[in-house]
Each structure stands twice: as structure tokens, then as C-alpha cells.
Amino acid sequence: MQIGKKIRDAREDLDLSQSDMAKLIPMNQSNYSKIERDLQEPNMEQLRRICQILKLDPKYLLNIDEYEFLSPEDMKLLADIKEFIRLHSK
Prior knowledge:
Elements: H1 3-13, H2 18-24, H3 29-36, H4 44-54, H5 58-61, H6 72-88
């Protein structure tokens, strides 16, 4: 899913208009509309404000997997720990 669609869906869930969002960021409504249509990327400050207003995790918007920085060995260790906990928590 594109960042603009995620932002639009979250905005609509809160019953905010594009104009409302633009005022809260602050930026002009035309440029905000371009963000939702994936024609323009928000700068860091705009992204921070969008996440605050819509109560979104930036990792969700940017498609950052919590584990993408872990090595395969680290992932194996996590899987082993999860299995150990599953087996011994009964």
C-alpha cells in the first residue's frame, strides 16, 4: 500500500478533511492533496506532524519491518527463543 493511501485512510477514519489536515500540519491543501495521491513526498517535519495528528507509527507509513535490520542468524535465534517459550510455558 502506498504512503498516500495509508494517510488518506487514517484521515478519513478520523473524519478529517484534507483542508483540516493541511491547517494542522501546516501546509497548503493543494500540496497535502498531492501527498495523499503519492505525487509528492512529505518532508520530515510534515511526516512527523501527519503521524502525530493521525496517531500513526512512522514505521507503518514507511513500510519498515521491525526485523529488517536483523541478520538471518538473529532471526533464527529469535525463532528458537519463541519456540522454547512456547514449549515451556505450558
